[in-house]
From TrEMBL:
It is an enzyme of class 4 (lyase). It comes from the Bacteria. Its EC number is 4.2.1.17. This is Enoyl-CoA hydratase. It comes from Protofrankia coriariae.
Amino acid sequence: MTDIRYPDYESLELDWPEPHVLRVTLSRGRMNSLDFQMHRDLSSIWRLIDEDPEVSAVVLAGKGRAYSAGGDFDMVQRIIDDYDFRCQMWKEGRALVQNMLDCGKPIVSAISGAAAGGGLATALLADVSVAGRTAKLVDGHTTLGVAADDHAVAIWPLLCGLSKAKYYLMTSDAITGEEAERIGLVTFCVDDNLVDKHALHIASRLAHGAPSAIRWTKQSLNNWVRAAWPSFEASLAFGILGFTGPEATEGLAALREKRAPNFVQRSYI
Protein backbone atom coordinates (compact mmCIF):
# COMPACT_ATOMS: atom_id res chain seq x y z
CA MET A 1 0.00 0.00 0.00
CA THR A 2 2.94 2.31 0.55
CA ASP A 3 6.48 2.79 -0.74
CA ILE A 4 7.73 3.74 2.72
CA ARG A 5 9.45 0.79 4.40
CA TYR A 6 8.50 0.61 8.06
CA PRO A 7 10.79 -1.50 10.28
CA ASP A 8 9.60 -4.78 11.76
CA TYR A 9 8.89 -3.23 15.16
CA GLU A 10 9.15 -5.44 18.24
CA SER A 11 6.33 -3.75 20.17
CA LEU A 12 4.34 -1.76 17.62
CA GLU A 13 1.74 -3.31 15.33
CA LEU A 14 0.87 -1.47 12.11
CA ASP A 15 -2.25 -1.99 10.01
CA TRP A 16 -4.57 -0.09 7.67
CA PRO A 17 -8.16 -0.28 9.02
CA GLU A 18 -9.42 2.26 6.46
CA PRO A 19 -7.95 3.68 3.22
CA HIS A 20 -5.13 6.10 4.06
CA VAL A 21 -5.56 5.52 7.81
CA LEU A 22 -2.53 3.93 9.48
CA ARG A 23 -3.16 2.39 12.89
CA VAL A 24 -0.20 2.11 15.26
CA THR A 25 -0.89 -0.21 18.20
CA LEU A 26 1.34 -0.41 21.26
CA SER A 27 1.75 -4.13 21.82
CA ARG A 28 4.21 -5.31 24.44
CA GLY A 29 2.19 -7.20 27.05
CA ARG A 30 3.00 -5.96 30.57
CA MET A 31 0.25 -3.38 30.06
CA ASN A 32 2.33 -2.00 27.17
CA SER A 33 4.95 -0.50 29.49
CA LEU A 34 7.75 1.21 27.58
CA ASP A 35 11.21 -0.31 27.42
CA PHE A 36 14.03 1.51 25.64
CA GLN A 37 13.34 -0.02 22.22
CA MET A 38 9.64 0.75 22.32
CA HIS A 39 10.37 4.30 23.49
CA ARG A 40 12.85 4.73 20.63
CA ASP A 41 10.42 3.31 18.07
CA LEU A 42 7.66 5.65 19.28
CA SER A 43 10.09 8.53 18.93
CA SER A 44 11.21 7.74 15.39
CA ILE A 45 8.12 6.39 13.63
CA TRP A 46 6.60 9.85 13.18
CA ARG A 47 9.27 10.89 10.70
CA LEU A 48 8.42 7.92 8.49
CA ILE A 49 4.70 8.61 8.78
CA ASP A 50 5.25 12.25 7.88
CA GLU A 51 7.10 11.18 4.72
CA ASP A 52 4.54 8.55 3.70
CA PRO A 53 2.21 9.99 1.02
CA GLU A 54 -0.27 7.14 1.58
CA VAL A 55 -0.96 8.16 5.18
CA SER A 56 -3.61 10.83 5.64
CA ALA A 57 -4.41 10.13 9.32
CA VAL A 58 -3.14 7.96 12.17
CA VAL A 59 -4.85 6.08 14.98
CA LEU A 60 -2.66 5.43 18.01
CA ALA A 61 -3.93 2.74 20.39
CA GLY A 62 -2.86 0.20 22.99
CA LYS A 63 -3.42 -3.54 22.70
CA GLY A 64 -5.27 -5.32 25.48
CA ARG A 65 -6.52 -3.79 28.69
CA ALA A 66 -4.15 -0.80 28.85
CA TYR A 67 -3.01 1.96 26.55
CA SER A 68 0.38 2.07 28.25
CA ALA A 69 1.40 1.80 31.90
CA GLY A 70 4.40 4.09 31.37
CA GLY A 71 8.10 3.32 31.75
CA ASP A 72 9.24 -0.24 32.38
CA PHE A 73 10.79 -0.55 35.88
CA ASP A 74 13.99 -2.08 34.52
CA MET A 75 14.40 0.83 32.12
CA VAL A 76 13.85 3.30 34.98
CA GLN A 77 16.50 1.51 37.07
CA ARG A 78 18.96 1.78 34.21
CA ILE A 79 18.26 5.51 33.90
CA ILE A 80 19.13 5.85 37.60
CA ASP A 81 22.30 3.75 37.35
CA ASP A 82 23.79 4.62 33.96
CA TYR A 83 24.84 8.18 33.07
CA ASP A 84 25.20 7.49 29.34
CA PHE A 85 21.80 5.80 29.20
CA ARG A 86 20.30 8.68 31.16
CA CYS A 87 21.59 11.11 28.54
CA GLN A 88 20.28 8.85 25.79
CA MET A 89 16.81 8.83 27.34
CA TRP A 90 16.87 12.62 27.64
CA LYS A 91 17.58 12.78 23.91
CA GLU A 92 14.89 10.21 23.06
CA GLY A 93 12.30 11.97 25.24
CA ARG A 94 12.97 15.22 23.46
CA ALA A 95 12.74 13.55 20.05
CA LEU A 96 9.41 11.92 20.90
CA VAL A 97 7.75 15.26 21.56
CA GLN A 98 9.43 17.08 18.69
CA ASN A 99 8.71 14.38 16.11
CA MET A 100 5.03 14.13 17.06
CA LEU A 101 4.71 17.92 16.79
CA ASP A 102 6.49 17.98 13.44
CA CYS A 103 4.50 15.11 11.92
CA GLY A 104 2.05 16.81 9.57
CA LYS A 105 -0.47 13.95 9.54
CA PRO A 106 -3.34 14.26 12.06
CA ILE A 107 -3.06 11.76 14.93
CA VAL A 108 -6.02 10.39 16.88
CA SER A 109 -5.33 8.52 20.12
CA ALA A 110 -7.66 5.82 21.49
CA ILE A 111 -7.12 5.68 25.26
CA SER A 112 -8.38 2.57 27.02
CA GLY A 113 -7.36 1.44 30.50
CA ALA A 114 -4.23 2.88 32.06
CA ALA A 115 -2.23 5.63 30.35
CA ALA A 116 0.81 6.81 32.29
CA GLY A 117 4.21 8.44 31.89
CA GLY A 118 5.73 8.26 28.43
CA GLY A 119 2.72 6.37 27.14
CA LEU A 120 0.42 9.15 28.28
CA ALA A 121 2.69 11.60 26.46
CA THR A 122 1.87 10.02 23.10
CA ALA A 123 -1.86 9.94 23.93
CA LEU A 124 -2.05 13.63 24.82
CA LEU A 125 0.28 14.86 22.09
CA ALA A 126 -2.16 13.42 19.56
CA ASP A 127 -4.25 16.03 17.77
CA VAL A 128 -7.52 14.42 18.87
CA SER A 129 -7.80 12.16 21.92
CA VAL A 130 -10.62 9.72 22.68
CA ALA A 131 -10.73 8.22 26.18
CA GLY A 132 -12.92 5.55 27.70
CA ARG A 133 -15.02 6.55 30.71
CA THR A 134 -13.03 4.34 33.07
CA ALA A 135 -9.65 5.05 31.48
CA LYS A 136 -7.06 6.06 34.07
CA LEU A 137 -4.70 8.88 33.09
CA VAL A 138 -1.80 9.70 35.40
CA ASP A 139 1.47 11.50 34.81
CA GLY A 140 3.09 9.81 37.80
CA HIS A 141 6.52 11.42 37.71
CA THR A 142 6.41 12.96 41.19
CA THR A 143 5.34 9.61 42.66
CA LEU A 144 8.52 8.22 41.14
CA GLY A 145 10.48 11.06 42.69
CA VAL A 146 11.33 13.06 39.56
CA ALA A 147 9.95 16.25 38.06
CA ALA A 148 7.11 16.01 35.52
CA ASP A 149 8.81 15.92 32.14
CA ASP A 150 8.12 14.04 28.87
CA HIS A 151 5.37 16.29 27.54
CA ALA A 152 3.33 17.59 30.44
CA VAL A 153 4.77 21.04 31.12
CA ALA A 154 4.49 21.88 27.42
CA ILE A 155 0.92 20.80 26.78
CA TRP A 156 -1.12 20.29 29.97
CA PRO A 157 -1.50 24.04 30.69
CA LEU A 158 -2.76 24.51 27.13
CA LEU A 159 -5.25 21.67 27.42
CA CYS A 160 -6.69 22.06 30.91
CA GLY A 161 -5.27 25.34 32.24
CA LEU A 162 -2.38 26.10 34.57
CA SER A 163 -4.37 25.59 37.78
CA LYS A 164 -5.41 22.00 36.96
CA ALA A 165 -2.03 21.23 35.41
CA LYS A 166 -0.20 22.29 38.58
CA TYR A 167 -2.44 20.21 40.81
CA TYR A 168 -2.39 16.98 38.81
CA LEU A 169 1.30 17.15 37.86
CA MET A 170 2.48 17.91 41.40
CA THR A 171 0.22 15.34 43.10
CA SER A 172 0.28 12.62 40.41
CA ASP A 173 -3.40 12.01 41.08
CA ALA A 174 -5.09 9.79 38.50
CA ILE A 175 -7.87 11.18 36.29
CA THR A 176 -10.69 9.15 34.77
CA GLY A 177 -11.55 9.57 31.12
CA GLU A 178 -14.76 11.30 32.13
CA GLU A 179 -12.96 13.85 34.32
CA ALA A 180 -10.24 14.31 31.69
CA GLU A 181 -12.88 15.37 29.16
CA ARG A 182 -14.52 17.68 31.71
CA ILE A 183 -11.34 19.63 32.33
CA GLY A 184 -10.29 19.62 28.66
CA LEU A 185 -7.35 17.23 28.94
CA VAL A 186 -8.84 14.94 26.26
CA THR A 187 -11.08 15.76 23.33
CA PHE A 188 -13.81 13.15 23.84
CA CYS A 189 -14.92 10.63 26.44
CA VAL A 190 -17.04 7.68 25.28
CA ASP A 191 -18.16 4.35 26.68
CA ASP A 192 -15.20 2.01 27.05
CA ASN A 193 -16.39 -0.35 24.32
CA LEU A 194 -16.67 2.51 21.80
CA VAL A 195 -13.17 4.02 22.13
CA ASP A 196 -11.55 2.30 19.14
CA LYS A 197 -14.61 2.74 16.92
CA HIS A 198 -14.92 6.45 17.68
CA ALA A 199 -11.20 7.11 17.20
CA LEU A 200 -11.25 5.31 13.85
CA HIS A 201 -14.34 7.27 12.78
CA ILE A 202 -12.55 10.57 13.47
CA ALA A 203 -9.36 9.43 11.73
CA SER A 204 -11.35 8.27 8.69
CA ARG A 205 -13.13 11.61 8.52
CA LEU A 206 -9.81 13.47 8.66
CA ALA A 207 -8.36 11.12 6.02
CA HIS A 208 -11.13 12.16 3.62
CA GLY A 209 -10.59 15.88 4.20
CA ALA A 210 -8.37 18.31 2.30
CA PRO A 211 -4.88 16.97 3.13
CA SER A 212 -2.82 20.15 2.82
CA ALA A 213 -5.40 22.33 4.55
CA ILE A 214 -5.63 19.96 7.52
CA ARG A 215 -1.86 19.53 7.84
CA TRP A 216 -1.13 23.26 7.62
CA THR A 217 -3.81 23.91 10.22
CA LYS A 218 -2.19 21.35 12.53
CA GLN A 219 1.27 22.82 12.04
CA SER A 220 0.01 26.34 12.73
CA LEU A 221 -1.78 25.25 15.91
CA ASN A 222 1.28 23.35 17.12
CA ASN A 223 3.14 26.65 17.32
CA TRP A 224 1.29 27.18 20.61
CA VAL A 225 3.17 24.16 21.97
CA ARG A 226 6.42 25.25 20.36
CA ALA A 227 6.05 28.59 22.14
CA ALA A 228 6.29 26.63 25.39
CA TRP A 229 9.51 24.90 24.28
CA PRO A 230 11.79 26.62 26.85
CA SER A 231 9.48 25.40 29.63
CA PHE A 232 9.51 21.90 28.14
CA GLU A 233 13.33 21.89 27.91
CA ALA A 234 13.60 22.95 31.56
CA SER A 235 11.16 20.23 32.67
CA LEU A 236 13.04 17.58 30.72
CA ALA A 237 16.36 18.66 32.24
CA PHE A 238 14.92 18.71 35.77
CA GLY A 239 13.32 15.33 35.17
CA ILE A 240 16.61 13.75 34.10
CA LEU A 241 18.46 15.48 36.96
CA GLY A 242 16.02 13.92 39.42
CA PHE A 243 17.12 10.42 38.41
CA THR A 244 20.54 11.16 39.91
CA GLY A 245 19.14 11.73 43.41
CA PRO A 246 17.77 9.65 46.27
CA GLU A 247 14.11 10.44 45.61
CA ALA A 248 14.04 8.47 42.35
CA THR A 249 15.70 5.50 44.06
CA GLU A 250 13.09 5.52 46.83
CA GLY A 251 10.23 6.17 44.41
CA LEU A 252 11.15 3.21 42.22
CA ALA A 253 11.65 0.94 45.23
CA ALA A 254 8.19 1.89 46.53
CA LEU A 255 6.59 1.16 43.17
CA ARG A 256 8.30 -2.22 42.95
CA GLU A 257 7.26 -3.09 46.52
CA LYS A 258 3.73 -1.66 46.03
CA ARG A 259 3.95 0.66 49.03
CA ALA A 260 3.83 4.39 49.68
CA PRO A 261 7.20 6.12 49.16
CA ASN A 262 9.01 7.56 52.16
CA PHE A 263 10.72 10.67 50.84
CA VAL A 264 13.11 12.57 53.12
CA GLN A 265 11.46 15.96 53.69
CA ARG A 266 14.60 17.99 54.46
CA SER A 267 15.59 19.49 51.12
CA TYR A 268 17.94 22.24 49.93
CA ILE A 269 16.22 22.68 46.59
